[in-house]
Amino acid sequence: MFQSHAYFSEERIFDELLRVLKADSTYEDKLVEKNRCIRIDYEGDFHMDILPASLARGNDEEVIIFQDRKLNSLFKGNPKGFATWFLGKANSLTSSVLQRFRNAMIESKVDTEPLPEDLYTKTPLQRSVQLTKRYRDIYFKNRDYPVSSIVITTIFGQFYGGEDNIYETIDKVLERIKNEYNQSIKSHKVFKIFNPVIPEEEFTDSWTAKHYESFFNFITDYYVLWQELKQSFERSNPYYKELFGHHVYRQSLIEKEKAFANTSDDEITKALGLILTGEARSDSRGRIDSIIGEKHEEHSNFGG
Question: Could you give the strand order of the β-sheet that contains 294-295, starting from the edge strand earlier in sequence?
């Protein structure tokens, strides 16, 4: 939400937005006042943060000013510039490599329900950040000092080395973060994360020793679990569940079985693949193929 800095103070903009939302019965019981934003808490794990801000004076129409009520200070932001920076990092791969990645995503998709088209066009960096935020939500469900989304997005963009797949992106970025953090400790320096488009803004300026401990424990735990995914799927399936939850694990299992069925000469394995993809038909003798007989309903229940 933006207003002109010349007409209203940031405090008034915040208060007016809060007043309007409280007056709406849809939102009145879902509002949480944060230091810099107003959060709308929906059912489940979904929430939306609204940052009341004003446009800064000057020629740069992307710079905004917002208030931190706890610190009683004003800060600058540039969300559009940040998005441009991150997408530049995400699309730093050559067009041919990006296309191979997107083709692989499309080939492995699970057609159980209509999904947004951009799900299969996002880059390895974008998908890696999404998965990391998902694990962050699980990891900090019963822990204090959670790592913010802006820190995760920034640090993944900064430490991304152009890896062309999701696994290598997460693996290498986490390794680089751990190494940089440990190097800072050895050099008696504070590990800081700055806004890449507003260098004077430090995202970690309010971190205490507890925040740093929580951050490093999160990164270390994530890295250790990620290494388990190098093992066979059967050995690593508990870590899939721990990293991303049961639903993502089941989707991964379906994709794995589909891919295996497509390359197998075993008739039972092929039949399983047809059932999972919803292409299975069976004749009066119980034989399963994709051409003759009655069509099966798609199946994705693995007993969980």
Answer: 288-289, 281-282, 294-295
Task: Tell me phi and psi for residue 95, to 5 degrees.
Answer: -60, -35
Q: Which long-range contacts (CB under 8 A, 24 or more apart) does 32-38 make?
A: 35/68, 35/69, 35/70, 35/71, 36/66, 36/67, 36/68, 36/69, 36/75, 38/14
Q: Which among 77, 22, 14 is positioned nearest to 50, based on CA atoms? A: 14
How many degrees, rounded to 5, is the angle at CA 36 between CA 35 and CA 37?
105
Q: pTM for this structure?
A: 0.66
* pLDDT values of the chain reduced to their tens digit, one per residue, 304 residues: 444 445 678 888 899 999 999 999 999 899 999 988 999 998 766 788 898 888 887 666 788 888 888 888 888 889 999 999 999 999 887 555 555 545 555 554 544 444 444 444 678 899 889 889 988 988 998 899 999 999 999 999 999 998 888 888 999 999 999 999 999 999 999 999 999 999 888 999 889 999 999 999 999 999 988 887 766 545 555 655 556 555 544 444 444 444 444 544 544 444 444 444 444 444 444 443 444 444 444 433 333 3
Cα dihedral value 71, 73, 78, 79, nearest 10: 40
- C-beta separation of 65 from 76 below 8 A: yes
